[in-house]
Amino acid sequence: MCLLFRIMKASRLKIISSLIALLISQISLIADHEQLKKPLFRFGAVADCQYCNQTSGVRKYSLSTQKLRDCVEHYNKLDLAFVIHLGDFIDRDFESFDKVTPIYNRLKAPHYHVLGNHDFSVTDDKKALVPAKLGLKERYYDFTYNGWRFLAIDGNDVSLHAYPKNDPRTKAAAAFHRSLKAGTPNWNGAVGKEQLRWIKEKLELATKNNEKVILFCHFPIFPANVHNLWNADALTQLLGKYSCVVAYINGHNHKGNYGTKDNIHYLTLKGMVNTTENAYSIIEIHKEKLLLKGVGRQDDRLMALPANK
Question: CA 20 to 30 Å from 87, out of 102, 120, 203, 273?
């Protein structure tokens, strides 16, 4: 009888141990699943704040200060790696920067700018001051975070609006524009040869370092659109040669847009300035996807990453 009791007791202990092991295994699986749902990191992205003390039927320029405040307050409640504004911080007048820059600088996360065409809608004597006014040491630059490299490029490199009227660069841009298809808008721009070489060098470095790359610019380059850079094809061809490139994110076309080419996501964010409703984004970086969570008019979007990314 004593032997039987010991056998039964041992069996119960074995069953209990097995149940505990099973429970631990299930808890571990749940934890792993929850971990997969969490992003590696996330960042904020805003397009076309485009403030000035005016308004129009669609573009509510003067409302952008309050929209930007609401955006900054929301971002400051989140754990963000950084925030990027994708150009056209103002619509016109150098003094407009003084209205929106203090609001943007309240961000707790590191925050960056790319240059838009309207950022240069200032008097000729102020055009050279615009990058520094936005806190930029260089007109195009890069930074890294958690194994990812981000390139902030300047689509105003070749431009009819970024330099004074009599500047040789303006005359060169006019000649470049005349060589394009008739009717090409003069309010876009192009990336110059030196900057294209710089982008190529950064992509080579990212490939060597096994980094993934996202590019930021004000102007789109894909799909085909009236807002695209004058030399959009040169840039898409370059990016398509590098498997490290994951996405190209821009503003300028306030309606937004999206396309894929060579396994690269080309994403145009909607402009904050349009309508009375806000528009900005939180973009999550996951191992297997990019997940855009839009606020206001900005749509959500899931962008899967191929295995080779």
Answer: 203
